[in-house]
Design goal:
heterodimer, A: alpha/beta, B: 7 helices, flat
């Protein structure tokens, strides 16, 4: 009963009190007509509770997301399936499905008269604007009586989450010259190392399936070796410079509060905050686009970043998915130097191609990067002109611009293909500059 | 027909239904149809004002004007300009007639003969209740409070008649009131 009274609306309470008062007065005065009115007014909210409380527990709701992962700007369909488990039809149900990350006009469904055993499907679309992993708020249903005297809200636990991956822009296919199509230790070297055997091998890494261990090579090298899947594939490394420090953000003491999307407020309050977020998002989107582009051109890629674990090479569409999943939730890192990340690229399996998305670089980091290019390694850098996004103080902006120019020159000098990207420019337009390897 | 119109119609029907409580007070019902017509005029004036998006106090004013106009046509046609404009002379005539009616009411016991003064009291009273119900339930959207003017309407015969109201006026009034609540709740949910 306490639960029931808690479900009374203001109107319900008003009726209860007015009805009680009228009935009391009518009894004292002996007025039959007033007593009739008083009893009606008093009974209405009680009947409303008696209707609403059992209806609440005899309702089931399931939710599904189709698809459960979506890229920024695309829409996903949310399906709510509401079932009446009771033996009587329900009244009018109000089903809001408002999600904190989709604030524009949250849908409110009105479901009238759900027959016993009937299931009704409610559908709406959400179109998230920022990447990230979003836990969805549990679906709710408001159950009310027809007169608005009692209402209860029931929420249905449903631990769904929506993964919003960065937007991927298709890049023009640009001939890279050189051995773009046969870089690194692809076919020739692998086969040479593995001898007559048609299985190319590499060192065992944690997580490899033991059934893939190649015992003959293991015996020869004295180390556990595994067969490499798809040895004919070109291999490359994708480097994302995720440092806040590389975007002109608060250096060092920055907190990684820019988890995915929607929570940028804090960082936006810092000097140049909005620009910091913008450059980071541009870098993530560029990494995603380049990764997908290369994967579709037959590269087996490895993602190396200073934020979060690296993704190992997986071929083809599987990589696309893994890459986008991990880029969906990548957050800016607090690291100050890119050198460890560059080292990680170098120490990985020899890559025929390095594609790097870079922010602000100091001389040491640039030199480390420059040294990645040797032999047949093809190196591509997307160098973000951070100063064009971030509102820096004049002297800092000048410094950043100088660093940017110096880094571009140095990398080009080392044989990198450098694509410079400024605010307002689209990667798809700039990408054709990859074809040109300038030596200065 | 908007939701406001629907609720206005329900409010008017409820008022007229509750007004059946007055039937045993009078010997004969020559006041009933004039009262229904007056309710119609009041509610129509309110609905028209709402459709032209007048502010709420102006809606109330136009309903008052409608009520005055209806009463003038009914009881002060002779002194009113054009037969319906409620000028000062017409208002004076109505007030005088109402005083006569009140004096009659104090003098006579129910059931009273439907003298012009007593009829004016019945029609004017029902018109005022209709105005109050419409203002509260539709213009200010507090349909639950519309019960109070309805209660005031039935309180007069309930207090005067020794046998009470009987069941029919109660059922008509309560049914209309619940329908009004329900219409409002349904609309509140849907928007």
């Amino acid at each position: 009963m306490r639960l029931g009274l808690a479900g009374l609306t203001t109107r319900g309470w008003g009726f209860l009190l007015a009805g009680a008062a009228a009935s009391g007065v009518a009894l004292v005065v002996g007025q039959r007509d007033l007593l009739r009115v008083g009893v009606l007014v008093l009974a209405l909210p009680l009947v409303a509770i008696a209707v609403v409380v059992p209806a609440r527990s005899r309702l089931a709701c399931a939710r599904s997301l189709d698809p459960p992962r979506v890229c920024v700007g695309a829409s996903t369909t949310v399906r709510l399936r509401l079932t009446n488990l009771s033996q009587v039809p329900t009244g009018v149900l109000l089903v809001p499905d408002d999600q904190p990350f989709a604030p524009a006009a949250p849908p409110r469904f009105v479901v009238a008269h759900l027959q016993p055993g009937e299931t009704r499907e409610l559908r709406h679309h959400i179109r998230p604007e920022t990447r990230g992993r979003y836990p969805l708020a549990p679906p709710r249903a408001r159950i009310a009586d027809p007169f608005g005297l009692a209402e209860l809200t029931r929420s249905f636990p449903a631990p769904d989450s929506l993964l919003v991956t960065p937007a991927v822009t298709p890049l023009p296919a640009v001939p890279l010259g050189g051995d773009w199509s046969g870089g690194g230790d692809s076919r020739s070297r692998s086969v040479a190392a593995a001898g007559e055997d048609d299985a190319a091998t590499r060192q065992y890494r944690q997580g490899d399936d033991l059934r893939r261990v190649h015992w003959r090579s293991t015996a020869r090298y004295g180390q556990l070796m595994v067969r490499r899947e798809q040895p004919w594939q070109n291999r490359g490394a994708l480097l994302l410079d995720a440092r806040l420090a590389a975007r002109g953000g608060a250096r060092g003491g920055a907190r990684d509060d820019t988890h995915g999307g929607g929570r940028h407020d804090d960082s936006a309050r810092r000097p140049g905050g909005a620009g910091v977020v913008a450059t980071f998002e541009v870098a993530v989107a560029a990494t995603a686009s380049i990764g997908v582009h290369l994967a579709r051109h037959g590269f087996a890629l490895r993602l190396v970043t200073d934020s979060g674990p690296a993704i190992d090479e997986v071929g083809g569409s599987a990589f696309e998915e893994t890459l986008l999943d991990s880029l969906a939730v990548v957050t800016p890192s607090r690291g100050r130097s890119l050198v460890p990340t560059v080292t990680a690229v170098r120490h990985g399996d020899g890559a025929g191609l390095v594609a790097a998305v870079l922010g602000m670089l100091d001389l040491r980091e640039t030199e480390e990067l420059a040294r990645l290019r040797h032999g047949g390694t093809e190196c591509v850098a997307v160098l973000l002109d951070v100063a064009s996004w971030t509102a820096l103080p004049a002297h800092a902006a000048g410094e950043a611009r100088g660093q940017h120019r110096a880094a571009a020159t140095l990398l080009r000098g080392a044989g990198w293909r450098v694509v410079e990207l400024q605010a307002g420019q689209r990667l798809a337009d700039r990408w054709r500059h990859v074809a040109v390897r300038e030596r200065t | 027909m908007t939701g406001d119109d629907r609720r206005a119609v329900l409010g008017a029907l409820t008022t007229v239904g509750s007004a059946t409580a007055l039937v045993p007070l009078y010997a004969g019902v020559p006041w009933f149809w004039p009262a229904a017509a007056t309710v119609l005029v009041v509610v129509t004036a309110g609905a028209g004002a709402r459709h032209t998006r007048l502010r709420r106090p102006l809606v109330l004013l136009s309903e008052l004007a409608g009520l005055l106009l209806a009463l003038t046509v009914g009881w002060a046609r002779a002194v009113a300009p054009l037969g319906f404009v409620p000028g000062p002379a017409a208002v004076d005539a109505l007030l005088a007639l109402a005083r006569v009616g009140l004096a009659d009411a104090a003098r006579l016991a129910a059931p009273v003969p439907p003298t012009p003064g007593l009829r004016l009291l019945a029609v004017g009273g029902i018109g005022l209740v209709a105005l109050a119900v419409d203002t509260v339930a539709v213009t200010w959207r507090r349909p639950a409070l519309a019960g109070l003017p309805l209660l005031a309407l039935v309180a007069v015969p309930a207090a005067v008649l020794p046998a009470g109201l009987g069941v029919l006026p109660f059922l008509l009034g309560a049914g209309g009131y619940l329908a009004l609540l329900r219409a409002d709740e349904r609309e509140r949910v849907a928007t």
